[in-house]
Amino acid sequence: MLRVSGVHTYYGQIHALKGVDVEVNEGEIVTLIGSNGAGKTTLLMTVCGSPQAARGEIVFQGQDITRIPTHKLVELGIAQSPEGRRIFPRMTVYENLQMGALRADPGHFEKDLRRVYDLFPRLEERKSQRGGTLSGGEQQMLAIGRALMSRPKLLLLDEPSLGIAPLVVRQIFEAIKEINRTQGMTVFLVEQNAFHALKLAHRAYVMVNGNITMSGSGRELLDNPEIRAAYLEGGH
Fold this sequence. Notes:
This protein is an alpha/beta fold. It has helices at 40-47, 70-76, 93-100, 109-119, 121-125, 136-148, 166-183, 194-200, 218-223, 225-232; strands at 2-11, 14-24, 29-33, 55-60, 63-64, 78-81, 154-158, 186-191, 203-208, 211-217.
């Protein structure tokens, strides 16, 4: 579904991605792990066109999207829940979800809203509450729910566990597993919480300093002594 081939990305003189190759097949959960500053978020942002790749190719369902404007990607079926959540704080939960559905078929709105509420019951309880007054975990649920309202074929999730209590982290990862299992949603997950991410993923990649250094099934990497030492036992 998504193929990133030989992608180089720069921030000014900083060479952030150095020839990255990643594939996400339809129906998979694929995760990208790595320490802070490894380039994980930059890869997701490059897929979304901001910044654009300086070299290399990004292909989605057979179409080259390397130079396609960010807003056009939603129409193609790509939705992102960005790092830091970035909800609309002055809008209610319901209004945030409406914003997510702007480019979707309005005939599906009520069904999609029900699906989000079933996935995250807390959002239905808080539907009239302003987004900025929600807890961090509730805001993350809202960010994911808003992305799902666009009816994406590919869901990009950037650090959904960041700054969230462990109990809520488990709830969010269970929700990701559920949308993949019941809806066949393809998910590309960028995450520092390697344990939860690798348990969830069908396949995984490891990024270090803008390079992919290792790949395999989630279980293979979870059991890898090098990965355990670096990411699962207090390492960085």
